[in-house]
Write a sequence for this structure.
């Protein structure tokens, strides 16, 4: 038997893959070709730099920033739980909420409220998960720099993917979401 690439097999013990193109094989595939742009671009800076300190020095498009305020800024999460998952981040490098000044905490709170309004307007979110993981032991992926998550939720956004396959289907490209949210942000 000869396979598609010319490899010859002495007997019929190996099945040719020639006929597999149109035959279901039992594997479920989630095609996400848009993710290659993020995979190939690599991290925003050297791995020892804080991504939240590096982001403000990039363009809004490069850093996925949707709004810059005086003491904090808002950007899309590069690894979102749902489309439109935003992070509210103080510019100053502090790791926990109690290290933030009263003014920084107030601006983070105000930006969080605005983020909710914008996401409700742009994506018709039915609800939100809002929170901060303080420290690596509490689940913070980036424990060294304070950030608040604003995750939009919809009545039908939960399905078997995250539970069974540990996969989250995201229907929109990050750059597209960033443009829409930034355009809707009040001035």
């Amino acid at each position: 038997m000869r396979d598609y690439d010319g490899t010859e097999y002495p007997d019929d013990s190996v099945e040719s893959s020639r006929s597999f193109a149109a035959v279901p094989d039992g594997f479920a595939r989630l095609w996400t070709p848009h993710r290659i742009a993020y995979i190939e671009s690599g991290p925003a800076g050297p791995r020892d730099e804080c991504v939240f300190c590096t982001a403000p020095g990039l363009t809004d498009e490069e850093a996925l920033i949707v709004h810059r305020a005086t003491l904090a800024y808002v950007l899309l999460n590069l690894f979102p739980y749902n489309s439109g998952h935003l992070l509210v981040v103080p510019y100053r490098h502090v790791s926990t909420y109690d290290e933030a000044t009263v003014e920084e905490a107030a601006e983070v709170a105000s930006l969080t409220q605005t983020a909710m309004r914008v996401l409700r307007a742009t994506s018709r979110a039915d609800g939100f998960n809002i929170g901060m993981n303080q420290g690596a032991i509490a689940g913070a992926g980036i424990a060294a720099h304070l950030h608040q998550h604003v995750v939009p939720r919809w009545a039908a956004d939960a399905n078997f993917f995250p539970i069974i396959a540990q996969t989250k289907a995201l229907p929109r490209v990050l750059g597209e979401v960033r443009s829409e949210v930034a355009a809707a942000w009040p001035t």
In short: The longest strand covers residues 148-153. The CA atoms of residues 1 and 31 lie 32 Å apart. The helical segments are 36-41, 51-54, 60-63, 102-123, 160-165, 174-184. The domain at 33-184 is CATH 3.30.428.10 (HIT family, subunit A).
